[in-house]
Amino acid sequence: QVRLVESGGGLVQAGDSLTLSCTASGATFSLSAMGWFRQAPGKEREFVAAHNWRGRSTNYADFVKSRFTISRDIAKDTVSLQMNSLKPEDTAVYYCAASSRLATVPTAGAMSNRNNYNYWGQGTQVTVFS
Question: Tens digit of pLDDT for each residue in 28-46?
């Protein structure tokens, strides 16, 4: 089992930056990828970004490319999401996710599929006002 704890959400103005962090504990040796998803009110949970846990490959949703950066620190079992130039439409609950189901070197498509993640954090609210 793996437990995920997120931190870093908050209320910010459009154009501001925010960093989300997620720390994993437990059977982290089993992980192959970690990522971030978000869910706005009345909408389905959608993929934001993911990182191959033991490699360097990353994947981003088109709507966050060049604004968001995902990074991971294996020594600290942590994955972070640096969010720049935030927009009101980025307002959502952001969820950290981890997978022990994906291949050691997962494809970008596989990392963006929420069904491939078997561990989820409790979520952290990000609100961006104009």
Answer: 999 999 999 999 999 999 9
SS (H, E, C) 48-68: EEEEECCCCCEEECHHHCCCE
* Rounded Cα gap, residues 118 and 127, in angstroms: 26
Q: Is 101 exposed, middle or buried (0-12, 13-18, 19+ CB in 10 A)?
A: middle
Integer Cα distance of 80 and 72 in angstroms: 6
Can you give the pLDDT at residue 65?
78
Nearest Cα neighbor of 69 from 55, 56, 58, 77 is 58
**Collapsed DSSP state (helix, strand, coil) of residue 34:** strand
CA distances from 92 to 22, 39, 112, 122 (A): 16, 5, 18, 13
Q: Residues 59-67: what's their mean pLDDT? A: 92
Beta 78-83 vs 124-129: how paired, if at all? unpaired
Within a 10 A sphere around the Cβ of 89, how many other Cβ atoms? 10
Q: CA 77 to CA 84: how far, in whole Å?
A: 23
